[in-house]
Amino acid sequence: MVLLALNAGAAPAAPSSQYPNAADSDPVKLGWMVGSPPPADRILRFEDGSYFKFPAMRWSVAHFRELMPTVNISRGLQPAAPLPRALRDDIDGLEFKRLDTGETMRWRASLAANYTDGIVVLHKGRIVYERYAGALQPDGQHAAMSVTKSFIGTLAAMLVAEGKLNPERKVADYVPELAVSAFGSATVRQVMDMTTGIRFSEDYADPQAEVWAHAAAGNPLPKPKDFSGPRSYYEFLQTVQAQGQHGEAFGYRTANTDALGWIIARVSGQSVAQLLSNRIWSRLGAEQDAYMSVDATGTPFAGGGLNTGLRDLARFGEMVRNNGFFNGQQIIPAAAIADIRQGGKPADFAKAGYTLLPGWSYRNMWWITHNDHGAFAARGVHGQTLYIDPKAEMVIARYGSHPVAGNAANDPTSLPAFEALATHLMKDGN
Amino acid sequence: MVLLALNAGAAPAAPSSQYPNAADSDPVKLGWMVGSPPPADRILRFEDGSYFKFPAMRWSVAHFRELMPTVNISRGLQPAAPLPRALRDDIDGLEFKRLDTGETMRWRASLAANYTDGIVVLHKGRIVYERYAGALQPDGQHAAMSVTKSFIGTLAAMLVAEGKLNPERKVADYVPELAVSAFGSATVRQVMDMTTGIRFSEDYADPQAEVWAHAAAGNPLPKPKDFSGPRSYYEFLQTVQAQGQHGEAFGYRTANTDALGWIIARVSGQSVAQLLSNRIWSRLGAEQDAYMSVDATGTPFAGGGLNTGLRDLARFGEMVRNNGFFNGQQIIPAAAIADIRQGGKPADFAKAGYTLLPGWSYRNMWWITHNDHGAFAARGVHGQTLYIDPKAEMVIARYGSHPVAGNAANDPTSLPAFEALATHLMKDGN
């Protein structure tokens, strides 16, 4: 099964302590898929789910394309945009207080605690910190998981700012096939902010949860002979039923992003992968191509299928921090970034019950902290994040492979670390 | 089924005239996999073979990764090596005589006749001609088919030149698992030059041909429940039986390259994809990553799984033309290139019966013309080729999607065109 879209904020299913720690689960040391051939117990397969069991998953997050079909997101052929380096040695020792226990922890220790595969910190556009672990290298690509959603939301916000997409129109106006589903009567804005009233459970403990049908539909492998469900993301979306009212509450449901991807494809005439390449990746000075997983009809998995190099994730974050301007050009209209940064309604967000994220909101598929730095983030399961702190002029791109999917497992040792680093960087005045 | 390794020199199965011409089979015009979703009759799938039927195949050759798992061949993060441009307008009108009918044809017309997807001509290291058609763009990647073999042979020749691989030793000395197969008693040299005595028919009209078991073994899709054959390239190679004697005749059999890939992986401790990235692609100043298809155990398809950008294929050719030196460094030992260029034994080659390739030989997985220019080539089905003419200081990289697999279908309008262009370029004295 394709487990790429787990709830980015859900409570942990099990305490982290039941898993081997970062050193003991090091995918390089464990030697997945190494050898000619690899030993039988080190071969990972997509078809049987072995690729996504912990700790094997720590290899897979940096090797998805070796397990499934994917579509390229070309960087174009132009030179990479330089990311100047101004590395600092005072960050590893930075102290912060864990959100859960209140204990003091050092930055360096937080990396292993969070099973960080790679982290880049930009301050004023310069790399001040960069570390790799797990199966990730500077020239490798890592699964962004639901960080993908923020890319899709940014593309949508861009189309809105350009007048090509009207967020107040109904979804069915753009994608008539969705009229039969609960999406049809929602506005594009409700989809963009995930305030649709749809039945889409991402409770993986429940075999009836809609997320299983979603994953089965999007699975690119041949369908079993007796398979009777939807056979693509688009077919799945047409089956989504109503639950509750549109526009009343934030509910984190991956299907919204796939619906938004469909809307974007209709409006732009390009798949989200093509649009991401043409409008962002090829203008960003990315140093590597990115890619997305696809279903059996070639549709990219908008809800969670993106894979990128870590520094390129940081470049994207720096572009967003600079209100859409990067690599010598305005890549995304400033109005689109402003609309992300203003956030959604914290009251809507509060209904979703994220106790670790008080006062936050969700807008254009981004998570908005509403803290006094105006920080906002893209977030994906197992610790993927792009954290942007405008006041501190700081961007943190982190890929990880935490054994627990929900970010509630790593937020206690991530969010206060990010805030402490922001404060620390601001002290220098340089 | 995976049909990536068809005999690069076999006679055509049917006359080209039964197929729509290049314009009528234009994959962009036909709109494969375009739309959200694509129309049902424009969706291509790996599992049912629809992706490789003509004319759909013309899309697939530039989109293999969207249909199957693949492994990246990183270019690294350094700048691309420049390929200076000195475009000429006198090439389209160049005339040559077709090998088959003797009729005069113009260069420009040969491109459509050969279903060329892209062609780059370097003269003295500068791009003098460049065209794209079909589904290929400068920033896209195309299947190299059996041109892959020459990359693998070059890696092996490199390891020989570096003293890491002894071509006179038996295959079983390096890969003990192959002792049970006909490969075990062959020398590495015999594998490198395809003079092994093995039973491996690539006659696709014969359902008992070994190539089908080879393709089934390497197919990355889940095996059917009742599947009893080998389940990976390496498992298949262990089943290969003897036929004839080693060292007596050239016989173009893809299994040799997969066996060579296994030997290379054992000797280097890296897969051929990793070795290609580390030793060549990351030093070549390639402008794009390349990739290879993989089997269910992650083994790259050495016999035909490579996909590259067209200009990068030209860069590789220019490196070989310059005896291993390119992008400011000696990438492949000059001795390895010399060993390729000297060729094999034309008498061995003649036994294979390629009537269009008189006096040629095969060495280190390259095709050697032994003409008075010392030209040699990498060749793959459906028109893939890298043609190097040392005397004319010319390199031609061409990707294509000819409806007929065997190159005998396109050689009559390719080889004399290449020779005429070489002569033409030499006239200038510049």
UniProtKB/TrEMBL annotation, chains A, B:
Question: What positions does the domain Beta-lactamase-related occupy?
Answer: 119-399
User: Domain of life, per the record?
Assistant: Bacteria
Pfam families linked to this entry: Beta-lactamase
What is the annotated signal peptide range for this record? Answer: none
Segments passing through the bilayer: none
Q: What is this protein called?
A: Beta-lactamase family protein
> Origin organism of this chain?
Comamonas koreensis
